[in-house]
């Protein structure tokens, strides 16, 4: 049942790393970790989200490990290090964007609509009030609460 997500997890890791061989290795490592957990406790039912989280953590661990290896006395090749830092930033940005999308999806419907209309579609608070058939004050509260919930969600992993 977990194998049905193998390609999906592999593609996710590839999106984060941009390296097919590394994606393949980390996908296998993800499944090994998850299978070890289910072996020791057969009562645990692994969710798709757990696979993604395990994969994400392995990518982050790999980046940190590589960064430590690169901080050896062989720092003559500065361009290599700049590229690697840039790649790390891209991967971390992708992880943050994914977390933001998940946070927005988890908002209550009214807050989600107000937030998306305001920040993604560029509507004014007054326009949103008309679209949602609520007061401008209610739009303000929905946007503020949405921001607070998103901030809380984003802080959980960092």
UniProtKB/TrEMBL annotation:
Q: Which GO terms describe its biological process?
A: DNA-templated transcription initiation
**Which parts of the sequence belong to the RNA polymerase sigma-70 region domain?**
4-67
Which InterPro entries does the UniProt record give?
RNA_pol_sigma-70-like (IPR039425), RNA_pol_sigma-70_dom (IPR014284), RNA_pol_sigma70_r2 (IPR007627), RNA_pol_sigma70_r4_t2 (IPR013249), RNA_pol_sigma_r2 (IPR013325), RNA_pol_sigma_r3/r4-like (IPR013324), WH-like_DNA-bd_sf (IPR036388)
Which SUPFAM superfamilies would you find in this protein's record?
Sigma2 domain of RNA polymerase sigma factors, Sigma3 and sigma4 domains of RNA polymerase sigma factors
Which UniProt key words apply to this protein?
DNA-binding, Sigma factor, Transcription, Transcription regulation
For the RNA polymerase sigma factor 70 region 4 type domain, which residue ranges apply?
A: 99-149
Q: Which GO terms describe its molecular function?
A: DNA binding; sigma factor activity
Gene3D superfamilies, alphabetically?
A: 1.10.1740.10, Winged helix-like DNA-binding domain superfamily/Winged helix DNA-binding domain (1.10.10.10)
Q: Which NCBIfam families match?
A: sigma70-ECF (TIGR02937)
The record's section on PANTHER family has: RNA POLYMERASE ECF-TYPE SIGMA FACTO (PTHR43133), RNA POLYMERASE SIGMA FACTOR HI_1459-RELATED (PTHR43133:SF8)
Which family, according to UniProt?
Answer: Belongs to the sigma-70 factor family. ECF subfamily.
Protein name from the UniProt record:
RNA polymerase sigma factor
- Organism source for this protein? Aliarcobacter butzleri L351
């Amino acid at each position: 049942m977990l194998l049905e997500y193998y390609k999906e997890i592999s593609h996710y890791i590839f999106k984060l790393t941009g390296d097919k061989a590394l994606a393949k290795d980390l996908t296998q490592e993800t499944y090994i970790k998850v299978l070890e957990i289910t072996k020791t406790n057969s009562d645990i039912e692994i969710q798709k989200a757990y696979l993604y989280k395990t994969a994400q953590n392995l990518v982050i661990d790999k980046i940190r490990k590589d960064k430590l290896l690169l901080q050896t006395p062989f720092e003559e090749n500065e361009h290599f290090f700049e590229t690697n830092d840039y790649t790390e930033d891209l991967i971390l940005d992708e992880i943050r964007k994914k977390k933001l999308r998940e946070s927005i999806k988890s908002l209550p419907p009214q807050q989600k609509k107000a937030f998306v209309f305001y920040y993604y579609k560029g509507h004014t608070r007054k326009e949103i009030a008309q679209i949602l058939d609520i007061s401008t004050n209610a739009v303000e509260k929905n946007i503020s609460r949405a921001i607070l919930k998103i901030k809380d969600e984003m802080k959980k992993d960092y």
